[in-house]
């Protein structure tokens, strides 16, 4: 056997091993798909607002939102040094403005089909004092109240809701009062990165199709191996 033949056989052996490895990987991958979750939730964003497009200001207006029943401030890393810890810290909303009356901010309405949805947002305490404020988020008939002391670090909150039929909904945030809660004192919970999204089940291939796919890929790998072996005889 010449050196070149030996090299071809070594190469064939390497090629066979490579094909076997790929065949095993395809089989394992197919099996993982077959035994994996049958339904996969896929979120679709209806709107996202990080408030970065708004100019700093006390008793400010907000792009794409209506401010009513009081005021809110646009603050941030360049104005009052707030929004600390937000993923987009340059601008956020102080939900208790500077007029002695906390405002309500509303966005919508949105016409939403029947299904599952989520309203998520980042909120933190206001480090200008140590008092407790409480922010109420509402959408459709779902409500989430978030009480935070001034030192409370920012984190994300999610309000899940389901609609049984086509519904017109608006998203709203406003500070509320209560025992031990300070509202209308010009110091409010900081709000940022608001997202309204739908959660829909993404279509996935039937397990039978996946088995056929895996078998088909194995067949392709085997045919390629045979064809390569035949050309090197
Ligand atoms: Ca922001
Ligand atoms: Ca307040």
Number of strands: 11
Low-confidence stretches: 1-15, 26-38, 209-218
- In terms of DSSP E residues, the strand content is 35-45%
What's the CATH class label of the largest domain? Mainly Beta
Q: What is the averaged pLDDT score?
A: 81
CATH topology of the largest domain: the name is Jelly Rolls
The CATH homologous superfamily of the largest domain:
Galactose-binding domain-like
- Termini separation comes to 13 Å
Calculate Rg over CA atoms: 29 Å
| Bound ligand species | calcium ion
- Supply the number of helical segments: 2
Name the helicity range: 10-25%
Number of domains: 2
From the helix content, strand content and strand pairing, which structural class follows? alpha+beta
What does this 3D model show about the protein?
With 233 residues, the protein is α+β, with helices and mostly antiparallel strands. Helices cover 25% and strands 37% of the residues. The chain has 2 helices and 11 strands, in the order αβββββββββββα. Helix 1 (3-35) packs antiparallel against helix 2 (207-231). The chain is globular, with a radius of gyration of 29 Å. Bound molecules: calcium ion (2 copies).
